[in-house]
Amino acid sequence: MGELQVEIKIDAACTEPKIIVLTDRITDEVSDIVKKLSDDAPQILSGFRENTLEILEQNDIYRFYASAGKIYAETEKGEYTLRLRLYELEDRLDKNRFVRISNSEIVNIQKVQNFDLSFTGTICVTLSNGIVTYVSRRYVHKIKQVLGI
């Protein structure tokens, strides 16, 4: 497939933005573009604190983690329990912001203060709220890809 051409037309009569993909055939690249366009709307996340359900803002979340069979969201406003599994959360989260670092934890990259690479075989992650956690060996390669190292 040749180079992707992007064209924007301004039309005062068009009240809702519309995207048209013009192609001679469906390729993996075309399918990926359509998937990205339809998947990017962030889905609503809600969490429980005591008996109250609150809508959680993805920007406010430091991390999600599993502990004692429950899933928690650690946010700027405190901790919430969620009724979703971590793999279900991964599907709902902004892929440019959240990354899985172990079987039991997903962190918000934008809330990371630093990654310490001096540990053999793993990476120590310090979040901006002072929480220290670790990338499990299985996920080290993936994190390095995300960070471009």
Describe the fold and architecture:
By secondary structure, this protein is α+β, with helices and mostly antiparallel strands. Strands 5-4-3-7-6 form a 5-stranded antiparallel sheet. A 3-stranded antiparallel sheet has the order 8-9-10. A hairpin with a 2-residue loop joins strand 3 and strand 4. The longest helix is centred in the first third of the chain and has 12 residues. The model has no long low-confidence stretch (mean pLDDT 88).
Order of helices and strands: HEEEEEHEEEEEH
* Whole-angstrom Rg: 19 Å
The total strand number stands at 10
Biggest β-sheet strands, sense, barrel? 5 strands, antiparallel
Percent helix: 10-25%
| Tally of individual helices | 3
Low-confidence stretches: none
Please state the overall shape, judged from the principal axes of the Cα atoms.
globular
Content of β-strand:
25-35%
Distance between the termini: 29 Å
Average pLDDT metric = 88
In summary, what is this structure?
By secondary structure, the chain is of the alpha+beta class.
SSE order and pairing:
Layout: H1 28-39, E1 45-49, E2 52-56, E3 61-67, E4 70-75, E5 78-82, H2 86-92, E6 98-102, E7 105-108, E8 112-116, E9 123-127, E10 132-135, H3 137-147
Index terms:
3 helices, 10 strands, alpha+beta, 3-stranded antiparallel beta sheet, 34% strand, 149 residues, 5-stranded antiparallel beta sheet
